[in-house]
Amino acid sequence: MRLFGVTGNCAACSKLIPAFEMVMRAKENVYHLDCFACQLCNQRFCVGDKFFLKNNMILCQTDYEEGLMKEGYAPQVR
């Protein structure tokens, strides 16, 4: 969690993020704190929670793993 620093748009809601607002980042995506949640079940993440970015969607571990099961493969452990 840190200040955005420049004005831009949230990757989840597409609304403006002022430069002075605290944001969450995942790769090149930037989110309002309130928008940083699983995009399937809306579970909010706390600092330190595990989340996944798949097809540019933020997912909780449960939804990510359920998606993998439907696709017929398991995640690789590194």
Distance between the termini: 25 Å
Task: Look at the structure and give the mean pLDDT.
Answer: 83
Binned, the helix content reads: 10-25%
Q: Give the helix tally.
A: 1
Along the chain, the helix and strand elements come as EEEEEEEH
Strand content: 25-35%
List segments where confidence is low: pLDDT < 50 over at least 5 consecutive residues: none
Radius of gyration: 14 Å
Globular, elongated, flat, extended or rod-shaped: what is the shape? elongated
Please provide the count of β strands.
Answer: 7
Physical arrangement of strands within the biggest beta sheet: 1-4-5
Specify the biggest β-sheet: 3 strands, antiparallel
What descriptive keywords fit this protein?
single chain; 78 residues; alpha+beta; three-stranded antiparallel sheet; two-stranded antiparallel ribbon; 1 helix; 7 strands; LIM domain only protein 3; LMO_RBTN_TF; zinc; Znf_LIM
Task: Characterise this structure.
GO terms for molecular function: DNA-binding transcription factor binding; metal ion binding; transcription coactivator activity. InterPro entries: LMO_RBTN_TF, Znf_LIM. It holds the Pfam family LIM. It comes from Zoarces viviparus. The chain is of the alpha+beta class and 78 residues long. It is built from one helix and seven strands. It has a three-stranded antiparallel sheet with strand order 1-4-5, with no helix packed on it. Strands 2-3 form a two-stranded antiparallel ribbon. A hairpin with a 6-residue loop joins strand 2 and strand 3.
